[in-house]
# Entry
Amino acid sequence: MSLLEVKNATRAFGNLIAVRGVSLAVEPGELRAVIGPNGAGKTTFFNMISGFVRPSSGNIIFDGQDVTEFPAHQRVKIGMARTFQITEIFPELTVRENLRIPVEVAAGYELSAWLSSDADREIRARVVDLLQMSGLTEKADRLVGELSHGDQRATEIMMALALKPRLLLLDEPTAGMGDQETYDITQLIRKLHKDQNLTIVLIEHDMRVVFHLADRIMVLAEGEMLAEGTPQEIAANEAVQTAYLGKAAA
# Structure
C-alpha cells in the first residue's frame, strides 16, 4: 500500500486554478521529486499534502487514511512533517534549543511545565543524536541566526525529523545556496533517506540535486501533471525538456 496517495487533487483560488486534477502515489521508503517552472503549482500541491490548504476537490490519503479534512497539526501527529521554501527556525535560540522544541513535542511534553530527570535525559539524548546525524554537533550551542544559510537549513530539516515523521516534505531545500552548501544538504537528505529509511517528497529547482537523489520525478506545468517517471525517463522526455529543462539550461 502506498504511504501517500493524492487522488485527482484540484485547488482553485477564485478563477485561478493553481492545481488541476493531479494524482500521485508515493511508496514507503521512496524519494520523490516534484519539479516544474515557476508558477507550476508545486507549493500549492505541497500545501494540500501537508494540510495548509484544502483541495477544492480530490482526496489526500496517508497510510490508507483519508486526511483531506485534517489540519496541518493533525497531519504532523500521524506522521507528516515539512520544511518551507523560506527557512523556518528560531534565530534567537541555539541549534540545540531549536532541536529540543520538536523533540519535546514528539515526546508529548510540549504542554509540560516540568519534566522528570528521566524524561529530560531522554530528550537530551535524542537532541544529541540529531546533532550527530546532521553534523551540527560543534555548532550546537551557537545561535542559529548567526549560522550560514546551509546550516540554518540543516537545522530546519533536523527539526522536522525530530517530529519522527514517516513522510518528510522538503520545499526547495537548497534554494539560495552555493555549490558547497548544496552538496552538504544533498548529502544530508541522502543520509536521512538511506539510514533512516525515510520516505521523502521534495520540491527542487536544482536539477543536479533532483537527478542525484530522486527515485522518481513528477513534473508539473501550469497546474497539471506533465510527466512522471525515473530520472532517466524524465531527462529523455521532450515535453519536459521544452517546458522546463530546456528553459533551465537556456
Observations:
- The first strand starts at residue 4 and ends at 13.
- Strands lie at 4-13, 16-26, 31-35, 57-62, 65-66, 80-82, 167-171, 199-203, 216-221, 224-229.
- The chain is about 40% helix and 25% strand.
